[in-house]
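Notes, p. 3: input format for complexes.
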Amino acid sequence: MELSDITNDISEVLFTEAQIHDRIAEIAREIERDYPDGDVLLVGVLKGAVIVMADLARELKFHAHIDFMAVSSYGASTQSSGVVKINKDLDTEVAGKKVLLIEDIMDSGLTLSWLVNNMESRGAASVEVCAMFRKPEAVKIPVSVKYVGFDIPPAFVVGYGLDYAEKYRNVRGLGVLAPHVYGGADPHA
Ligand code: IMP
Ligand code: MG
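Output follows (189 residues plus inosinic acid):
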């Protein structure tokens, strides 16, 4: 299926690629102000954060150091606590470094709260969070997010790195997935 055929799968476009890029430029200026010497390790959470990492890192005016982790979380959508498993760890030693976690979306907050604790337990000098999208009404575990792209309603969204069943990640903007696509099932599963 071609990507151009997805118009029926998206019930509403929340942000265009241009709107997202404008916001990323604003966030990049804040990060440059907060880390004036560029002394920060950007840690992206695979796979969803690949797109925001690519755009944010290229927007920064310092030499951005980037690394990635892959995790899977269980029970994120229905429980207030859950299990997070590392599927791919960082290549970089975190001890003593200023870490900035880069996430596509903060939903329940389970993944990010676990990652913040994990970076702190490795001896990071500081840990901050940048989430491109956040669903404030869905948050179950509060996490202090220093840089937020956009707050959105608690609908299931796709595009800009976010998937449903590994599809739609390469859609350029962010849209609400039409309910007929997942037909009553929990799309977070
Ligand atoms: P949390 O641990 O509940 O905050 O979930 C974070 C992860 O769940 C994100 O990194 C996404 O992979 C996934 N997720 C949460 N909400 C959505 C959504 O609306 N669309 C696509 N993926 C989502
Ligand atoms: Mg996913």
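The domain at 18-152 is CATH 3.40.50.2020 (Rossmann fold).
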